[in-house]
Amino acid sequence: MTKALSWLIKGSTLFCLLPWEPIAAQIVPDATLRVNSSVTREGNNTSAITGGTQVGSNLFHSFGQFSVPTGSAVYFKNAPDIQNILTRVTGSSISNIDGLIRANGIANVFLINPNGIIFGLNASLNIGGSFFGTTANNIKFADGISFDAKPLSGVEPLLTVSVPVGLGFGTNAGNIRVFGDGQGIRKTSDLIDTSSGLRVQPNQTLALVGGNILLSSGTLKTTGGQIELGSVAGAGLVNLIPTDKGWTLGYSGISTFGEIQLSGAAAVDASGDGGGNIQIQAMKLMLDGGSQIESSTLGAGTGGTLKINASDSVNLVGLPEVDSFFNTGISSLVYPRATGSGGNINIETARLNVRDGAGIAAGTYGFGNAGSIEVLAHDSVEVLRKPTANAGSSITSLAQRGSTGSGGNIKIETARLSLRSGGVISSGTFGQGSGGNVSITADEEVQVTGKSLTGNSPSRISARTGGTGKAGNLTIEAERLTVTDGGRVNIGGEKIPKNLNFQPGQGNAGTLRINADSINLDRGTITAGTEGGTKGEGGDIFLHSGDLQLRDSIITATAGGNGDGGNITINTDILVAIKNSSITANAFEGRGGNITINAKGLFLSLNSLITASSKYGINGTVKYNIADTNIYPTQLKAEVIPITPEITPVCQARAGTEVNSFRVSSTRNLQSKPNNLMFNNVEQSNSVPVPALNNSHNLKSLRSNQATQIIEANVLIRDSQGNLVLTTDQANPTWDNASLSASSCFSGSQW
Fold first, then answer.
1. Is 6 helix (H, G, I), strand (E, B) or coil?
2. How far apart are CA 738 and CA 716, in angstroms?
3. Cα–Cα distance between 452 and 458 in angstroms, integer?
């Protein structure tokens, strides 16, 4: 949080220190072209620009200064056959635009000023084509000719009929700022929802490409067209690639990028009958103060793509006191009654931070399907809710209540993923359509921890159903998965507090797969159930890990109503469940699910359980495949844990006045007294029959010197050799002749 605020303050200071010139009516031709530009006044507030040099369908203008004062207009009176109006500023002044720029026909307008461009509160566009505001040094053409903003003195420039193909930048490009009234955030499904800000016509491009870019309450709009924001901090060429929506920009020729900041409810919106495209290229992207980037589907058209590439970081900081969808965010939605599909959101960066109520959302309220979200964050993804915030921070793709379309998928690839204090990553359906799938891949760790201050909003990764549609599937691949302090990983429906707006539905749960070297739950939950629903079937859970630890935690595939419980399959070296932990595949009226545990060792505390029952239906089954069926009194050092093929049916007696005991944790195949024989009542695929033995003979063979009192094991640690050792969380445990490994301590459990 501190780093994000530091960047925000630094960025704001940077923009405040940029040169600022008074807005004045300064449109001064520089007489550098073969046919020079001419400026005449039409009425009190309009300046008409004529002349310029026409070459084919290109019209070239050159000015020493170019600014449009507040309340005035500049009118390019071009011929109807002109396709591109190319306007350069050769002087040293920033262009201050606080009025209207107008052109005839469908001409594209390029404004090039390397010194910088400022669009004021009253800036607007009335052109039929695309608009480029750029602080590049020149425009490159297909035949190799360039139109330079810094021409050689006394040399007439070469002009061309070719199409523009690139923007050439120097090492110190000027900055671009856009100011506004903060009223550009979309709140309706109207195609034209506001008259403020900079706007181009449908299927045209609005591009701002320069050094650092600041939108301070400013608005950029196109109805289903293309919006391009590019921050270039080094020399190179930005490619212009023609499309059916004008142009898209390519940055393969640029190696150094700058900063883009949206603050004060700034809006970048390409929503239309079909959503338009938005591309943002920077080193750092910061959204705060309720700012929005949106490309939504309002009608029957197909959604576009919202693409963000920030080499260092993407930071979204919300308004924690605002409990509203219109918080800081990036979104691609299908609006009510729209039949077209939503567009996709693609983000590539080193670090993605979503906090204080901000969000990234793809969803549908209509008939069309929602788009997908893909995040590639090379270092980390953090979704953090401020504990006192009304709204949660989230990455979601949802089919909302009343919709018939399906939710989109969420795919996240990173090194470290952290959800804290109520942060959420979720796909889901609350309507008739199916929920999308969630796929998480983390080279290092996935951490899901904590909940909101009220306790109603836990941190969670989920694929949920609250309607009639089926929930999506959830897959997590990580080196470590940690779910603690109320955190959840879940698919399907669940019991939701009544004061929340989510209600369990009738849809079936999906499938949950987790593959991790280590899975650790401490007051955490992994669920694939439909508890609280009426008809939904429980989902299936597949867990594959080196070690799986539960402490006061739950793994469940329980179904509500008359749905059948789901199945749980666990493949692990060591399974430890202590302190009121449970693994359940239960049902109420339906059939209980099946639980299969394949492990080298299993430890279950007295107050923990594993069940597959049904209250009114048929019970499910619990099957154990334990590689080591040995239960014997080990006398091992902590750093060595050998495995023996023998079975000892008793525990060691100890001389002296202390009474020996062996605590049995919810199982019938272990005896509580040292001279009682053990009889195996557990059905295991590799069970070994225990022969009848004489008690006294066995006691004699096991007799030894005075043994140190054994302390009950309740935690699992790794020793210096990488072996797993069950021990105690007591401050100074006694290790002498008292260490127990999970693989040789318990082979059974509750059944």
1. helix
2. 15
3. 6
557 residue type, one letter: A
Alpha helices in 323-450 (DSSP H): none
C-alpha distances in angstroms, 410 versus 25, 177, 310, 437, 522? 50, 33, 19, 6, 26
**How far apart, in whole angstroms, are the C-alpha atoms of residue 555 and residue 296?**
38
φ/ψ of residue 172, rounded to 5: -140, 70
Please list, in sequence order, all residues whose beta carbon lies within 8 angstroms of the beta carbon of residue 60, skipping any fewer than 6 positions away: 33, 52, 53, 54, 86, 88, 147, 157, 159
Per-residue confidence at 617, pLDDT binned at 50, 70, 90?
A: confident
pTM of the model: 0.82
Give dist(CA 514, CA 571) in Å, integer.
10
CATH superfamily of 1-150+162-317: Single-stranded right-handed beta-helix, Pectin lyase-like (2.160.20.10)
Question: 295-309, 331-345, 661-675: which has the minimum mean pLDDT?
Answer: 661-675
CA 145 – CA 138 distance, rounded (Å): 10
For residue 14, which amino acid is it? Answer: L
CA angle 447, 453, 458 (to 5 degrees): 40
- Which two three-digit tokens encode residue 398? 């949802």
Length of the chain: 751
**DSSP notation for 328-354:** SEEEEEE-TT--SPPPEEEEEEEEEEE
Please check whether residue 446 is in contact with residue 481, taking contact to mean a CB–CB distance below 8 angstroms. yes
User: Residues 6 or more apart from 330 whose CB is under 8 A from it?
Assistant: 287, 292, 293, 294, 306, 308, 316, 345, 347, 359, 360, 361
Looking at 138-142, 340-344, 366-370, 685-689, which range is the least confident one?
A: 685-689
Residue % of the chain over a pLDDT of 70: 75
Least confident of 261-275, 283-297, 482-496: 482-496
Residue 664 Cα to chain centre, angstroms: 45
pLDDT value of position 278? 98
Beta strands in 344-457 (DSSP E): 344-355, 359-364, 373-384, 394-399, 410-420, 424-429, 438-449
> Letter for the amino acid at 86?
L
C-beta of residue 59 within 8 angstroms of C-beta of residue 78: yes
Residue with tokens 């199945």: 567
SS3 177: strand
**Residue range(s) in the chain whose domain bears CATH number 2.160.20.10:** 1-150+162-317
C-alpha to C-alpha distance for 556 and 568, rounded to whole angstroms: 8
Report how far apart, in Å, the C-alpha atoms of 287 and of each of 216, 259, 266, 344, 599 are: 10, 11, 9, 19, 48
Residue 680's pLDDT is 36
Distance, CA of 375 to CA of 397 (rounded, Å): 13
384 CB contacts (<8 Å, ≥6 apart)?
Answer: 1, 353, 354, 355, 356, 393, 418, 419, 420, 421, 423
Q: Which residues does 265 contact at the CB level (< 8 Å), separation at least 6?
A: 182, 183, 184, 185, 217, 289, 290, 291, 292
Within a 13 Å sphere around the CA of 599, how many CA atoms are in the beta-carbon half? 28
Q: How many Å apart are CA 312 and CA 379, to the nearest integer?
A: 10
Residue 357 · residue 322 · CB < 8 Å = yes
Give the dihedral sign, CA 331/336/338/339. positive
Q: What is the mean pLDDT of residues 82-92?
A: 97
Distance CA 342, CA 407 (A): 10
Task: Report the distance separating Cα 97 and Cα 455, nearest Å.
Answer: 50
Pair 591, 618: CB distance under 8 Å:
yes
Please give the span between the terminal C-alpha atoms of the chain, in angstroms, as a whole number: 48
Report residue 141 as tokens: 């053409």
User: What does pLDDT average to over the chain?
Assistant: 81
